[in-house]
C-alpha cells in the first residue's frame, strides 16, 4: 500500500490530555476512536475516507495491535457492516468505514443490525461526497439512514469539533442502542489542523482481553415475532433517547446573540459556506461572530431532529431560512411539517429560494442569500446588494480573462498504466475490423475508458455489476459483449454478481480482467489478490483468479501481458472467435504502474548512490519524422504524450513529443505500429554507472559516427 502517514503522524495518536495533534480529518477521527476505546475497526476503502483506512493501517503495528484492536481488510462494505454484529450482542465499541455509495452494498446486513439495536457504541464513518469530487453518483446518506433508523452526525468543518463528535458518536450510540453514521466530507477528511487531544481509553474487550462467553438472546433475533416489537422499540424508544442525548450534550450549536430577528438553520459544512457568504456580505466574520440581527442554529446531528429545540429557536423569529444542501430535502419537509403541526406562523423559506440540487458552494449561495438578507434587512439592503454584485462581477471578470471557455479536464489513466493498452488494443481492433462490440464496464480506474480518447464504455452501472448489466443485451443484440473488470472489483462483488450469474445463465460474453494486483482506484489498497492484508500481515489462503475461474467452470481462460501488443492482440482475437455461447475470460496481468514506480524509484536511487549500474528506458518521438497528424494520441491518452513545436518551419501543426514523466512502458510506440500509423517513435535505454569498457566502446563509436553525446558514466539528474 502507498503509506500516507509518517511515523511522526502516527506517534501523535498516543498523545494524552491537553496535548496537540496536527493532521488531517482521517487522523483526527482515528484519534477520536482511540479516545472512545474501540475494540475493532474495518471497512472498504473509498474516497473521501480512503485515508482513514490508510491511517489505521499505518498505525496498526505501533498503536492498534498493542491495544488489542482487531482490524480487518473487509472484502466489501457488506463484510464490514457484518462486523458490527459484535456490538449487537456484547458491550464492545467498534467502527467501520466506506464511501457514500457503499451504503447500498451494506444495507442488507446493516438493516438487521439496526433493527436489533446495539449494546456497544457502533459507528459508521461514511465518506459523504455530494459534490462528487471522487464519486460517480451524487447521493446523500440521510435518506438511507432515515429509512433504517440510523442516527446521522454531519459536523461543520472544524477539526476540534470533529474530534469531539467522534468520541460523542460512541456515547450517543450506547445511550440510544442505535447505530450512528458519522459523515466525513472532503472538506474535513482532507483538511489539516491542530487539535487538543484527550487520553485514549482502554477497550473493555479486545484481542488480548477476550470475552469468555457470549449469552444467547433469542428474544433479540431479527425474525418474527420479534420483528414488529423491534420496529416499535426503534422509533418509540431508541431514537427518542437519541434526541434526549443530543439536547443534553449540546451536539447542535447556536451562534449569535440569541435575540436576532432572522434565524438561519444550517447543517454539516453548509455552515462554513454560509458563514463565508455572510462575511462577504458584511454580516459576519469568518470566526463565527454574526450581525446582531442574525441567529444561527447549526444541526450537527441531522437525524433525528430535535423538535423542541427547533421550535424554541424558530418561535421568536420574524423570518427563518433553512439552508439545506441537496435532494431529497428531508430536513425541510420535517421542518415544514413541524411548523404546521405546532401552528407556528413564522415565515419560513427553504428550497423555494436556496438551490435545491447540487453542492452549495459560495458562488451558488451568495445570490439567494443576499436576496433574502436584503429583503429582510431593508436598512442594509443597498450595502448587501452592492457587496453581492461586486463579488458576482468579479467572478464574471475572471471568466472573461480567458478568450475561450477552459476545456474541462477529464480524469485519465496514469502514465504507463497497464489498463490503457488494453483499451488501445480493443479500439485499434474496432478501427481495423469495423466491428464495434458492446462494452459493459465496471467501477474502477478502467471506467475512464468511457471518456476520450477511447469512448469504450457503453454502460457503467455500479461496482461489480458490469458483466451482469449486459445479460439481457447479450441475448437480444447482434453485438458481442465485452466487459471489463479490475481485480479489486472482481473480489469486491463481481465474482458472484457477474461471474456466477453469467455462467448460470449461459451468458455469451468476453470478460477482460485487469489484474494489476491492487485496488488502485482508491489510492492503491491491498485486496485478496495482493496477498498481504492492509495491515501488512499475511492474508489467509491462496486466492488465485485463474484457478477460481476454472473451479467455477469457465472453460476458456487465457492470460496475457498488455504491454506485449502482438501476443495480447492474438489472444484477444482468438478468444473472441465465434464459438458456442459461453463466458470467455482473458486476464491482463501487469502491476499498477503507480505502485510499481513507488517501488522502482527508491530502489533506483539507492543503486545510483551505491554506484551500481542502472538502466532506464525512455520513449521518444523523432521531431523530423513526425508529420503532426496526432493519430498516435487518438488511441492512447497517456499524460506524458504531448505536443511540441516542429523543427521544420514548413510544418503547419505541432508534432508529438514525450515529456520527462515517461516511464518507458512502450505503449505509445506499440500503438503507432499496431495501428500502422508512423515510424517516428523510438525507445532508448539510458545507462548509468557504466563500466570502463562500455565507455571506451561508446567513445569509439562516437569517433566513427559523430552523432550523439559522449557517455560519462554519471547519473543524469532527475532521471527516475
Oligomeric state? single chain
Major sheet attributes: 7 strands, mixed
Rg over CA atoms, rounded to whole Å, is 29 Å
Q: Tell me how many strands there are.
A: 24
In total, how many domains does the architecture comprise? Answer: 4
Tell me the CATH architecture of the largest domain: 3-Layer(aba) Sandwich
CATH class of the largest domain: Alpha Beta
CATH fold-level label of the largest domain: Rossmann fold
Beta-strand residue percentage: 15-25%
How do the helices and strands line up, and which of them pair or pack?
Elements lengths: L6 H5 L8 E4 L1 H12 L3 E4 L6 H15 L5 E4 L3 H7 L1 H5 L4 E6 L2 H15 L5 E6 L13 H8 L2 E3 L5 H18 L3 E4 L2 H4 L3 E4 L29 H23 L4 E3 L6 E6 L2 H11 L13 E6 L1 E3 L3 H8 L4 E4 L7 H12 L6 E2 L12 H15 L4 H20 L19 H14 L4 E4 L17 E2 L10 H6 L4 E6 H18 L4 E7 L29 H8 L3 E5 L4 H11 L7 E7 L3 H17 L4 E8 L19 E4 L10 E4 L8 H8 L6 E8 L3 H13 L16
Parallel strand pairs: 2-3, 2-4, 4-5, 5-7, 6-7, 10-11, 10-13, 13-14, 15-16, 15-17, 17-18, 18-20, 19-20
Antiparallel strand pairs: 1-8, 6-12, 9-11, 21-24, 22-23
